[in-house]
């Protein structure tokens, strides 16, 4: 694999940046249309609803519980094991609790340990806090990069980061997967992973700008991306394989979370190679230099 990357040292990534822009724009439009037409399948955390905790004797599997709920016509629910051997069933507001309790009874006797309701006010607060968490993370990243590099580089990185997060959210909309607080946490992890790749490339660009004074920025960026390509791809590939395995084998709850990792790693890796540095190049050439001239 390393030999392959050495043979590909002189790829002209900046030469194909407009094709990368076109692909990114197409994906963004598809995501925007999906969000506008379908919206997001918001979970109990954001819509309100009911939480049931039950204990079966003998214990029943979450797969069997899902089957009986689906057969009874319950559509909006989550089923989860706990470390104490109980089962958590989360229902959206419009799901009748009596119907669910009767369906659970068909599997055998159970003890109802807890029944809690999350109202619209609380779910609205959770939505607001989730949005603030994402915006605060992006704002913090912007300030850090502006301090470590310069404002133009920070702008390019944050635009690429927003691009990555928006595409992951669009993927949830397209597939109809549920978006809950766990997914928001996963989005923040994906954002951190994506910006980490970008910072590695930017750091190499800055180093090469000092070493190769007088070389035009486009050439320096191409050299830097080629130098960091093996690290970027190998790290992303390793993480992707682990995430894909957990997505395929982790069960419904974990699979829903890992979906953001699978999509985010692919999108984040490609944007750190083709989008972030390209945005910096075009901002500098089209906006910064004309003002200085």
Automatic annotation (TrEMBL):
Annotated keywords: Cell inner membrane, Cell membrane, Membrane, Protein transport, Translocation, Transmembrane, Transmembrane helix, Transport
Molecular function as annotated in GO: protein-transporting ATPase activity
Localization: Cell inner membrane; Cell membrane
Domain Protein export membrane protein SecD/SecF C-terminal: 104-285
Membrane topology: Multi-pass membrane protein
GO cellular component: plasma membrane
Transmembrane segments: 18-37, 130-147, 152-172, 184-202, 233-251, 257-281
Major location category of this protein: membrane
InterPro entries reported in the protein's UniProt record: SecD/SecF_arch_bac, SecD/SecF_bac, SecD/SecF_CS, SecD_SecF_C, SecD_SecF_C_bact, SecF_bac
A GO biological process held by the record: protein transport by the Sec complex
Gene3D superfamilies: Multidrug efflux transporter AcrB transmembrane domain
Keyword Kinase: no
One Pfam family this sequence matches: Sec_GG
The family this protein is said to belong to: Belongs to the SecD/SecF family. SecF subfamily.
Subunit structure: Forms a complex with SecD. Part of the essential Sec protein translocation apparatus which comprises SecA, SecYEG and auxiliary proteins SecDF. Other proteins may also be involved.
Primary role: Part of the Sec protein translocase complex. Interacts with the SecYEG preprotein conducting channel. SecDF uses the proton motive force (PMF) to complete protein translocation after the ATP-dependent function of SecA.
Alphabetical list of PANTHER family matching this protein: PROTEIN TRANSLOCASE SUBUNIT SECF, PROTEIN-EXPORT MEMBRANE PROTEIN SEC
UniProt name for this protein: Protein-export membrane protein SecF
């Amino acid at each position: 694999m390393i030999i392959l990357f050495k043979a590909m040292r002189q790829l002209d990534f900046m030469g194909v940046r407009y094709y990368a822009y076109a692909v990114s724009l197409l994906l963004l439009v598809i995501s925007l249309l999906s969000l506008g037409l379908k919206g997001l399948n918001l979970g109990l955390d954001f819509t309100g609803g009911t939480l049931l905790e039950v204990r079966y004797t003998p214990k029943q599997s979450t797969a069997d519980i899902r089957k009986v709920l689906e057969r009874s016509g319950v559509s909006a629910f989550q089923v989860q094991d706990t470390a104490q051997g109980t089962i958590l069933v989360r229902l959206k507001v419009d799901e009748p609790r009596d119907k669910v309790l009767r369906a659970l009874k068909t599997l055998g006797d159970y003890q109802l340990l807890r029944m809690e309701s999350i109202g619209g006010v609380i779910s609205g607060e959770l939505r607001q806090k989730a949005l603030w968490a994402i915006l605060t993370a992006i704002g913090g990243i912007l300030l850090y990069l502006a301090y470590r590099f310069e404002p133009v580089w920070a702008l390019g990185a944050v635009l690429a980061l927003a691009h990555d997060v928006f595409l992951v959210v669009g993927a949830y909309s397209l597939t109809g997967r549920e978006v809950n607080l766990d997914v928001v946490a996963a989005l923040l992890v994906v954002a951190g992973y994506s910006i980490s790749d970008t910072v590695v490339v930017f750091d190499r660009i800055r180093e090469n700008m000092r070493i190769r004074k007088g070389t035009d920025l486009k050439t320096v960026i191409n050299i830097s991306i080629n130098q960091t390509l093996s690290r970027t791809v190998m790290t992303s590939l390793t993480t992707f394989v682990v995430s894909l395995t957990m997505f395929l084998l982790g069960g419904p709850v974990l699979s829903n979370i890992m979906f953001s990792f699978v999509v985010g790693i692919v999108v984040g890796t490609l944007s750190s190679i083709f989008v972030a540095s390209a945005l910096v190049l075009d901002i500098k050439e089209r906006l910064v230099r004309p003002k200085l001239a």
